[in-house]
C-alpha cells in the first residue's frame, strides 16, 4: 500500500525492460554482420517490409502533404506570408513528417506482424526446435528482419517525401491559386541536401527500432495466444514511443 514502493517497483521494472531490450538489440545488430547469412530470408523480408508497405506509406504521404499545405496557407495568410507555403511544406516533410509518419505506419504494420510471427513460433516451440537443430534463431529470424527494415525504410521515406511534396503542390496549384512553375522553383531552391539526408538517417534508425522491438516482444512472448496478442500490442506501443523519443533526440542533436 506504500505508494513510494509501488513507484520504485515500477521504475526498477521499467529500467530492467530497457536493459533487456538494449541487450537484445545489440545482439540483433551483431547477428546482422556475422555469418551465416540467410540471403533468401533477407530478400523475402525486404519484399514484405518494403514493397508491401509502399501503398500505405504513399497514401499517407499524399494526404499529409495536402493537409500541410492547406494549414500553412491558412496560418501564413494571417501574416501575409502565403508565399512561404512551398518552403515550409518541403522542409516539414523531408525533415520530420516523412520519416516520422512512415515510421509510425510501419510500427503498426511491420512491428505487429514481426511480433505475431515470432511470438507464434515461440509459443509453439518452433524456436526451440531451431536451436535443437543448431540453427541460430537470431541469425535466421531476427537479423533478416532487422536488416531489411533498416535498409528499406529510408527508401520508403524517400518515396514518401516525393509524394508528400507533390500532394502539397497539387493542393497549392489547384485550390490555393499558386503558379505551378513558381511553386516548384521555390521548393527546389529552398531544399538542401542535408534536409533529405537527415530524414533518411532518421528512417534507418526508425527501421531498426521497429524490427528490433517487434522481434524482442515476439521472441520473449509466452502464455499461448494471449501472450502473442500482448506481445503484438507491446511491440506497436513500444515502437511508437521510441520513434517519437528518438526523433526528438536526433533533431535536437542536429539543430544544436
What fraction, in percent, of the residue positions are helical? Answer: over 70%
Shape by Cα distribution: elongated
Low-confidence stretches: none
Total number of domains: 1
Supply the number of helical segments: 9
Number of strands: 0
Report the sheet-strand fraction.
Answer: under 5%
Class computed from helices, strands and strand pairing: mainly alpha
Main beta-sheet annotation = none
Mean pLDDT: 88
**H/E series, N to C?**
HHHHHHHHH
State the distance separating the first and last CA atoms.
Answer: 45 Å
- Any idea what the radius of gyration is? 21 Å
Task: Explain what this protein looks like in three dimensions.
The chain has 9 helices and no strands. By secondary structure, it is mainly alpha-helical. It has one domain. The model has no long low-confidence stretch (mean pLDDT 88).
Amino acid at each position: 500500500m506504500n505508494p513510494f514502493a509501488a513507484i520504485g517497483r515500477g521504475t526498477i521494472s521499467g529500467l530492467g525492460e530497457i536493459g533487456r531490450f538494449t541487450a537484445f538489440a545489440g545482439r540483433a545488430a551483431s547477428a546482422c554482420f556475422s555469418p551465416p547469412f540467410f540471403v533468401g530470408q533477407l530478400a523475402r523480408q525486404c519484399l514484405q517490409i518494403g514493397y508491401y508497405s509502399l501503398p500505405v506509406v504513399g497514401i499517407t504521404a499524399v494526404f499529409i502533404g495536402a493537409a500541410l499545405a492547406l494549414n500553412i496557407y491558412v496560418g501564413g495568410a494571417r501574416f501575409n506570408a502565403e508565399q512561404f507555403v512551398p518552403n515550409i511544406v518541403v522542409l516539414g516533410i523531408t525533415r520530420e513528417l516523412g520519416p516520422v509518419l512512415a515510421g509510425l505506419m510501419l510500427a503498426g504494420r511491420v512491428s505487429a506482424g514481426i511480433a505475431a510471427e515470432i511470438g507464434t513460433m515461440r509459443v509453439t516451440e518452433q524456436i526451440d526446435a531451431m536451436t535443437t537443430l543448431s540453427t541460430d534463431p537470431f541469425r535466421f529470424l531476427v537479423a533478416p528482419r532487422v536488416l531489411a527494415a533498416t535498409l528499406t525504410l529510408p527508401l520508403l521515406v524517400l518515396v514518401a517525401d516525393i509524394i508528400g511534396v507533390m500532394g502539397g503542390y497539387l493542393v497549392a496549384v489547384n485550390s490555393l491559386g499558386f503558379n505551378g512553375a513558381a511553386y516548384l522553383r521555390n521548393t527546389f531552391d529552398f531544399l538542401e541536401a542535408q534536409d533529405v539526408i537527415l530524414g533518411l538517417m532518421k528512417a534507418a534508425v526508425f527501421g531498426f527500432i521497429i524490427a528490433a522491438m517487434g522481434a524482442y516482444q515476439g521472441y520473449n512472448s509466452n502464455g499461448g495466444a494471449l501472450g502473442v496478442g500482448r506481445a503484438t500490442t507491446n511491440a506497436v506501443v513500444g515502437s511508437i514511443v521510441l520513434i517519437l523519443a528518438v526523433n526528438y533526440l536526433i533533431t535536437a542533436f542536429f539543430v544544436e
